[in-house]
């Protein structure tokens, strides 16, 4: 964050203990900064992740905050939306398109419907990319991988069967109180997505764009 006194860039001074108010507002941690120009210390940057509505007030953050706020707004408008977490340190969203019958990649700070941009444009080496919503958890790594075989070689944190088992159990718990008709519809959508994820994508010109923010 910029220095509140002189507006110069600040440097990290480590993590701070969240205040009672910051915790109530949803800050799991608070980053501390100091200004190297005017010497101001104690500049606080709360990371509001558990209560995204707070971001509508602060209007400050990074990819995690932008994704949280975007998902909040989409959900409020009635769109099925997922929060997507990349284990190599990035966060974005996916929105279900009824018109196209598929999940659309939406990175609020970067681009839309260019899932290969992270590997082809940013040079990332993805490992695990997980999508979370109130209805389900899904491993969507393959949507964002330009080389499935290469990606498989990097997925060594957990056994594949363990991962699938836990994803299915988490999804089952989230849908526990759903009527059978709704669960059936979600399962059909999930199966169609799995078939889509098995199909390797070709890198397009728009996927080669570097990071914008």
Account of the 3D structure:
By secondary structure, this protein is an alpha+beta fold. Helix content is 31%, strand content 23%. The protein is built from 7 helices and 8 strands; from the N terminus they run E-H-E-E-H-H-E-E-E-H-E-E-H-H-H. The protein has helices at 20-24, 55-58, 63-76, 117-120, 148-154, 160-174, 180-197; strands spanning 10-16, 27-35, 43-48, 81-86, 90-97, 102-106, 129-132, 137-139. The strands form 2 sheets. A 5-stranded antiparallel sheet has the order 6-5-4-7-8. The longest helix is centred in the last third of the chain and has 18 residues, at 180-197. The radius of gyration is 19 Å and the shape is globular. The chain starts with 9 loop residues before the first strand and ends in a 16-residue tail after the last helix.
Outline of this structure?
The protein is 31% helix and 23% strand. With 213 residues, the chain is α+β, with helices and mostly antiparallel strands.
Walk me through the topology:
Blueprint: E1 10-16, H1 20-24, E2 27-35, E3 43-48, H2 55-58, H3 63-76, E4 81-86, E5 90-97, E6 102-106, H4 117-120, E7 129-132, E8 137-139, H5 148-154, H6 160-174, H7 180-197
Antiparallel strand pairs: 1-2, 2-3, 4-5, 4-7, 5-6, 7-8
What fraction of the residues are assigned to beta strands by DSSP?
15-25%
Alpha-carbon distance between the termini? Answer: 14 Å
Q: Order of strands across the widest beta sheet?
A: 6-5-4-7-8
Helix content: 25-40%
Main sheet? 5 strands, antiparallel
Query: What is the strand tally?
Result: 8
Please tally the helical runs, counting DSSP H or I stretches of 4 or more residues.
Answer: 7
Taken in chain order, the helices and strands follow as EHEEHHEEEHEEHHH
Strand pairing plus helix content: what structural class?
alpha+beta
Shape: globular
Runs in which pLDDT lies below 50 for 5 or more consecutive residues are: none
Mean pLDDT comes to 94
User: What is the multimeric organization of the chains shown?
Assistant: single chain
Q: What Rg do the Cα atoms give?
A: 19 Å
């Amino acid at each position: 964050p910029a220095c509140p006194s002189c507006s110069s860039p600040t440097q990290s001074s480590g993590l701070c203990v969240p205040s009672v108010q910051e915790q109530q507002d949803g800050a799991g941690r608070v980053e501390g900064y100091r200004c190297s120009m005017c010497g101001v210390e104690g500049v606080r940057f709360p990371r509001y992740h558990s209560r995204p509505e707070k971001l509508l007030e602060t209007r400050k953050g990074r990819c995690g905050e932008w994704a949280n706020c975007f998902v909040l707004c989409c959900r409020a408008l009635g769109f099925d939306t997922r929060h997507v977490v990349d284990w190599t340190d990035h966060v974005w969203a996916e929105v279900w398109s009824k018109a196209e019958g598929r999940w659309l990649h939406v990175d609020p700070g970067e681009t839309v419907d260019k899932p290969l941009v992270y590997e082809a444009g940013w040079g990332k080496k993805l490992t695990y990319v997980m999508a979370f919503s109130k209805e389900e958890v899904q491993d969507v790594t393959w949507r964002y991988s330009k080389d499935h075989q290469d990606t498989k070689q990097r997925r060594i944190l957990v056994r594949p069967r363990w991962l699938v088992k836990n994803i299915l159990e988490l999804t089952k718990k989230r849908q526990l109180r759903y009527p059978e008709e709704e669960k059936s519809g979600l399962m059909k959508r999930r199966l169609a997505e799995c078939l889509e994820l098995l199909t390797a994508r070709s890198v397009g010109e728009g996927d080669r764009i570097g990071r914008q923010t």
